[in-house]
Amino acid sequence: MHKLTLSFLxxxxxxxxxxxxxxxxxxxxQQIGSLLSTYKTLHAAPELSHYEEKTSAFFAKELRALGxxxxxxxxxxxxxxxxxxxxxxxxxxxxxxxxxxxxxLDALPVEEKTGxxxxxxxxxxxxxxxxxxxxxxxxxxxxVTAMLGTAKILSQLKDQWHGTLIIIGQPAEEIAGxxxxxxADGLYTRFPKPDFALALHDAADQEAGKVNxxxxxxxxSSTSIDIKIRGIGGHGSRPDGAKDPIVLAAQVILGLQTxxxxxxxxxxxxxxxxxxxxxGTKHNIIPDExxxxxxxxxxxxxxRKKLLAGIERVTxxxxxxxxxxxSLAPSVTLQTEFxxxxxxxxxxxxxxxxxxxxxxxxxxxxxxxxxxxxEDFALYSLxxxxxxxMIFWVGAVDPARMKQSKEAGTLLPSLHSAxxxxxxxxxxxxxxxxxxxxxxxxxKK
Length: 445
Ligand SMILES: [Zn+2]
Ligand SMILES: [Zn+2]
Prior knowledge:
- With about 450 residues, this protein is of the alpha+beta class.
- It is built from 9 helices and 18 strands.
- Helix 1 crosses helix 9 (about 425-445).
- The strands form 5 sheets. An 8-stranded mixed beta sheet has the order 1-2-6-3-7-18-8-17, with helices on both faces.
């Protein structure tokens, strides 16, 4: 009798496991048609960072219809004239873990050249008041759609999980302001503070059906620095009667490269890029000043601090060597709001990777290299990685196209390219399946 009961129980348990894994596919089948049309509608109607009004309202409306408790316009920017279109949607399902999953909402000032029937022709005003073309060139429209698909399935599978599920729609990811704005507006005090936070992003270099996972540091911190180099202007024919800030700027730019190659440990990946240099007006005038804009990338905070100190030292020291008087010393101004590195909590990443392998096949979960790009999703883990977080990458490239480009040695359009055209259906299916499996792993009964 005992034995019989046990084997009956085992059958029930294994049936339940199989059921939870298989249940998701027909649920995706059932909504894929409407999700594809949602995706195409969103793709054709992108909105710039700070202006995600319609996208956020649509996202909120859909989540409300699924039974989530939704709060709109969450977020506080540093400039009061900007409205934050952050969305927080909560589905409570008894006692249990609190898990937050995030999609971004914004698009980019890029003129779409994909030629797709649902390509964007939108133009809108940016923060500076200039009219610019707008495109979902980073795939945040895919993220929104995948999140809605996941939200629906999880609302239908409430018997399989417990706890509090929080879905957020974050504005202004592309200018790294939205996460900070939402946290500043009480994301973790007005709403439940999560035990775990997850996000996905589409990948322009991975085929649809596969997911990239990187444990530990996976994306770099990003710090923006403005350098003003001052000299003493004069006639271009009389350098001895001036202090030339153009030559000094050139020396500083080359000197900065030795901060990475000589000061920084070769075991700490780092980048210093001078992305902008402006100075002077005419062939024969030595100007008074030159402006540089610099981006610094690193993983570890100690490495970032060392790079920043090196930049200040090289810039100021080079000016002293050029005989610039102390009153005209260069200014090195750090933008205070930097984006920290994304750290995929290793234990969480391992746990999610196993769940993803079960859901989409082990061969489709691909360990991948960290990258020096940055993401403000990093901020949700708070200082010193208090909250375990993880972002994974969902392949968005047609496998046939990927094979073709490998064979021909041609480059695929990257994220932010005017030609980036993710293949919607398999990317959405994998994204939804992966995110659903990840949440169920963390919240399962
Ligand atoms: Zn982007
Ligand atoms: Zn993006």
